Amino acid sequence: MDTINVIVTALGWLAAGFWLWFGLRTARFLRGAVLTRRVSASPTPAAWPKVSVIVPARNEAAAIGPCLQSLLALDYPALEVVAVNDRSNDGTGEQMDRLAARDPRLRCIHVQDLPAGWLGKTHAMHQGASQASGEYLVFTDGDVLFAPQTLRIALRHTLGRELDHLCLLPKALPGGYWENALTYFMGMLFILSVRPWAMASNARSAYAGVGAFNLVRTGAYRAVGGYEALRTEIIDDMRLGRAVKAAGGRSELLMGDDLLQVRWQVGVAGLINGVEKNSFAAMEFSWPYLLGFSALYLGLLAAPYVAVVQSQGATGWLAALAALNVLYAYWNQRAGTGAHAVFALPAAIVLCLWALWRSAVLITWRGGIRWRDTFYPLSFFKPERR
């Protein structure tokens, strides 16, 4: 066996070891991370703290009504809902006002103008948090649906664990076969990137945030500067989680099965367009970062297929391919879309990398990001991230 074959074989076994470790770690996490199963370990509080749910929305007339209705149906006894209409022109604000007229727990804020130096969403979040009166804040999106028991279960767990921050992954509402395949592949990559099992440690690199459900103690939120300190952050949910963790806060990421649901985007094209603003921002708008990530991505996800087809170091790479496919099948089976989604894995790998590079090329070519009818030049963002 020549030197190249030895190296290829060794790399195959390294990839196999990685996917075996990650698969076992993920399966263990998922078994113990469903909030509805874990909450029984926490006592019921004698008094429930007031919680303010902050819902920003811009031109979401089709979704905001069901979202707010699900929030107002929560069985939590000390609830305030703050809905922020961010410069909508499609009837979103009118729907908020109609619901607020029927339920005093809902307050509406109507943003007419975007101040300089702010992203629209972070400004809306800031406005909502500034007028909220709860001891805990929940930041969510205008298309998320809540089960009635969501807040009661989340607060019971948060208080019992003495957490400063809790984020929940919602159940993704199913779409078509290819949409589901790409959605759950992206979800698997998210778990890989944030390592939720390490969040209980003091490691500052282990943090997370979820736009659908980011619960934070108000004191911890203010201590890190709130959204005023995140005014130019595209992936604001993650940056809020990072700020709380960096300040020494206790944080957890759990699965919101049976509590939250959302359809992230409609169709494969919708998914690719939906990650356009986030993907390159997650790379700090850095081409070297993107190139390094792409090399690692191809080595772990594409190389097993190529090596097996070409019979290069086939045993190790076959083991890597098997471990990867079993993990992806398990992930989809758990989500209810079926293990047969594994046949779409090669396409999902290609499409996800394409979406990342598309984001980088478009943002670089345009010189900035277009988000909800507003253009933000790269010079708008923090200098250290350009």
TrEMBL record:
One of its GO terms (cellular component) is plasma membrane. The keyword Metal-binding does not apply. Keywords: Cell membrane, Glycosyltransferase, Membrane, Transferase, Transmembrane, Transmembrane helix. It comes from the Bacteria. Signal peptide: none annotated. Pfam families: Glycos_transf_2 (PF00535). The chain crosses the membrane at residues 6-24, 287-307, 314-331, 337-357. This is Glycosyltransferase 2-like domain-containing protein. It comes from Methylogaea oryzae.
